[in-house]
Design brief:
Elements lengths: L2 H72 L2 E6 L5 H13 L2 E4 L19 H7 L19 E11 L2 E2 L2 H8 L6 E8 L7 H9 L3 E2 L3 E4 L4 H9 L2
Parallel strand pairs: 1-2, 1-3, 3-5, 5-6, 5-7
Antiparallel strand pairs: 3-4
Length: about 230
């Protein structure tokens, strides 16, 4: 056979072989790239779904946390406790309770004080004798127990000033109750005396609670005086 024809056939065969090799190499490469792209796409979608689920879970946790915090704030209650010998402290306490939308509790001695008992100018009057003899100041009360006491976060305690201190029936109430976890704000009524050490002495009697600086009202304060006090709380 002519050598040229043989050489041509050989060249054609080589071209076909090379073409096949190139075809299969490209085919395998394309399949590999497509598989990698599918795998990466699937992983990205999986990661995206995981991120979405994680964000939803975090949002749920934050919502639950905010709900708990809001609930805790809404449950705080205020109580106004008072002892009133002549009605002055009672009027102030009721106005404070109305302004703060608070509950109210009156300290009532079993043996209530009469006008003669309160005559401090008489050395033989009940309050004069109790002032001179501290052993007589343990005044028995009708009740020292407040319904749902644990629900109150803030307690305001009002009283008249007797000889520069809180009227001693208040001591009986304070010593009978646990003020742990409560904010306590004393207030008093008097014709001339200031709050003095009355609040601090009551805090020492209680030995619990966070006692704040108190406030003194004159015996017949105006509504604006009481409003200014409650607005400041």
């Amino acid at each position: 056979m002519n050598k040229r024809i043989i050489a041509l056939i050989v060249v054609i065969i080589l071209v076909v072989i090379i073409g096949c090799v190139v075809y299969f190499v490209n085919k395998n490469r394309n399949e590999s790239e497509n598989n990698n792209e599918k795998r990466l796409t699937g992983q990205a979608e999986e990661n995206s779904q995981e991120n979405i689920a994680s964000e939803e879970e975090n949002n749920e946790e934050n919502t639950e946390s905010n709900t708990v915090a809001d609930t805790g704030t809404e449950t705080g209650k205020t109580l106004v406790v008072y002892f009133s010998a002549q009605g002055h402290t009672k009027e102030v306490a009721q106005k404070i309770a109305d302004n703060l939308d608070a509950d109210i509790f009156e300290i009532v001695p079993v043996d209530e004080y009469t006008s003669d008992d309160l005559d401090w100018t008489d050395n033989n009057s009940r309050t004069s004798r109790e002032h001179d003899d501290e052993s007589l100041r343990n005044v028995e009360l009708v009740s020292t127990s407040v319904d749902n006491w644990d629900e109150y976060d803030r307690v305001l305690i009002g009283y008249p000033i007797w000889w520069g201190i809180a009227a001693w029936p208040v001591d009986t109430f304070v010593k009978a109750n646990d003020f742990t976890g409560k904010t306590v704000i004393p207030f008093c009524t008097s014709s001339s005396s200031g709050l003095g050490q009355s609040g601090r002495l009551l805090a020492e009697e209680a030995n619990s609670g966070n006692w704040l600086e108190g406030h003194r009202f004159r015996s017949n304060p105006s509504d604006s005086d009481i409003d200014s006090f409650t607005d400041s709380l």
